[in-house]
Amino acid sequence: MNLHAVRAIYLFEMARTWRTLLQSIVSPVVSTSLYFVVFGAAIGSRIDHVEGVSYGTFIVPGLVMLSVLTQSIANASFGIYFPKFVGTIYEILSAPISYFEIVLGYVGAAATKSIILGLIILATAGLFVPLHIHHPIWMLTFLVLTAVTFSLFGFIIGIWADGFEKLQMIPMLVVTPLTFLGGSFYSVNMLPSGWRTVALLNPVVYLISGFRWSFYEIADVSVALSIGMTAAFLVICLVMIGWIFRTGYRLKN
Amino acid sequence: MSSIISVANLSKTYGSGFKALKNVNLDIKRGEIFALLGPNGAGKTTLISIICGIANPSEGKVMVGGEDIVSSWRKARSLIGLVPQELHTDAFESVWATVSFSRGLFGKPKNPAHIEKVLRDLSLWDKKDNKIITLSGGMKRRVMIAKALSHEPQILFLDEPTAGVDVELRKGMWEVVRTLQQSGVTIILTTHYIEEAEEMADRIGVINKGEIVLVEDKATLMQKLGKKRLTLHLQNKLSSLPESLAHYKLELCDSGATLVYDYDTKGERTGITSLLGDLRNAGIRFSDLDTTQSSLEDIFVDLVRTS
Known about the structure:
Chain A is mainly alpha-helical.
């Protein structure tokens, strides 16, 4: 195991985070705060309680997940895409470092960054609404699992993308809509039964539901199903990354 | 001298069907400077990329320091430092950070003293805290060499190390390469500048259309393939050559003011003595004469044209 290399990649990626602090931490915190102001205070004041909790409090887990999902993808995809774009990938490919170690370095850093971000957003939310976390261990488990899974997904996008447009396409056109429709701002149970069935095809529903359960013990689907779906997505991403490295897809010609 | 790199029956076919390398066999001796020459698209970079692990071979075997690059890739790669042709750098990193990063990537623990030595040797020490984006092209090239040397490799690949570098800097770079060789590093360089190979290399390999056309000691190559040219500056201009000199394949140049004779140094007889005798018999006098040895460039062009 080339731990020096994993450490080098991890610290390199983390250093990029601190160098771009405004973009990587401050900007998502500001935009999430705006969600609180708009949805929590302005609109939320007109909405009654949702499943026993105030609307402002209800949307907190969804908002944290929204940021964790999008930032995990953005961090990991950019992290591996940029060396490909500027050509410095030659060094990673010629170094005595295994594919597993490369993924550990890049995905580890991307996940760390979005976990930190998720916790900062959670703390920020605490300034707006009263928070109570019923199952802190499960909350952290969901947070870490989601950050790792979506960082892996981002890594795949970063390898696949051969231009900035493609790099943005999946997050903008697929992930953001799925997250918005995944119950960040409402309970899936509030939908008419037909739409509820459609909504259950959205994998993000399971992530947000499980995460929300760890806060308030209210869930759209069972917790076991939430964990199962997240784990399944994790396995799918791992299998895809395994295939990418085995074939050298978009890395080695 | 033992081989540090051994390439056997190596072929590479790209997805498009293009055959970049065709059954290449090559041995690089430990401690030598080996220059790989070839026109654009000859397969130089593909060969280097495969040895360094950036591209997968289609067929064949490569051993580096006795280790197979496929089955024992970790050991093989840790012996190699690569300076690619293009200037690929992390624009916003400092020189120190990027060179230290490379050392870590190759599995070596931190060693600030070594990084300092590398940067000082490459005249980069006073730029160590500068962001790479602020450096000139020549400096960026040296940063890339520093990155490649950060993990104390036994083999250094320099893919077109002096492309786009001014004459002064190029000579400085040659100096660096020689110092590296003295410290025991084996150096493989590809270049378009024939004078670079002529100046630096111990051995020269020529690759063309994916095939190794020739591998030879530089001196032997020059001697073996070298042609010499005798130029005679005539006292009186000639309008045409006399019949008695027709069999010499002489060329009348400068409107008849000079007579040029190409001869082969590897031939048993150069024909110079009889030529000079026949010239005197024909009443042709000359005021001066000089001879020139064909350069590696002429040899290279000849080889590529005929292969």
